[in-house]
User: Fold this.
Amino acid sequence: MSKITAIIPTFNEEANIGAAIESVLFANEIIVVDSFSTDKTVEIAKSFGVKLLQHEYLYPAAQKNWAIPQAAHEWIVLLDADEVITPPLRVEILEKVKTAPTEAGFWIYRSNDFMGQRINYSGWQGDKVIRLFRKSMCRYEDKQVHEEIETKGKVGYLTHKIHHNTYKGFDHYVAKLNRYAWWQANDYAHKTGILTPYHFLVKPWFRFFKHYVIERGFLDGLPGFTISLLQGYAVFSRYAKLWLVRRGINQ
Assistant:
């Protein structure tokens, strides 16, 4: 039977890291890649006896691409610290690897909680990520935000979902969007032409409309409205920061 390495990148995740590690105890090796946390993340991780590595964090894809070669085994389960492998998914992963599949990796859908509520619409209903993959056939594309795995083979699908609690507080979520907007500004710098009112008015408005109306965010109540509004803000923020970057202003 093929063995599995679980990789969990962390930074100040004391509220989540214990549950994340517990959900991957089925793995033959567990590596926590910490970005020099200042809370109790490292202490909690060490209490589980995992392999702990510390590495400077630049952006998500760079950290994950550094972590993947550290794995001892070919099959990797990569889990963000605010995610949990549910028991049915754990069984499915073990059964899938046991069959020696030919796929390079597998898409796994996520169930998302936000503002204390399960989000069923708002554009998150189809949320999926490649979290089970072969070390030798996959790496993350080198972009600073919304990175996805590039594979050398076919990608399949698993049935059961990862549980994802993306919400640590309103201010924390907005700060995350602002951080991502800076990264996106750098990603977009060479592929976006002249910035116009279309970028600052039309695109943010349409992003709100897409999440709230087309993708039925209104059915998620206030959390759905908040997600839609913040997604529109994120688009505006991306281009505002790109405008700043092009003028040599990074704050």
The two ends are 51 Å apart (CA to CA).
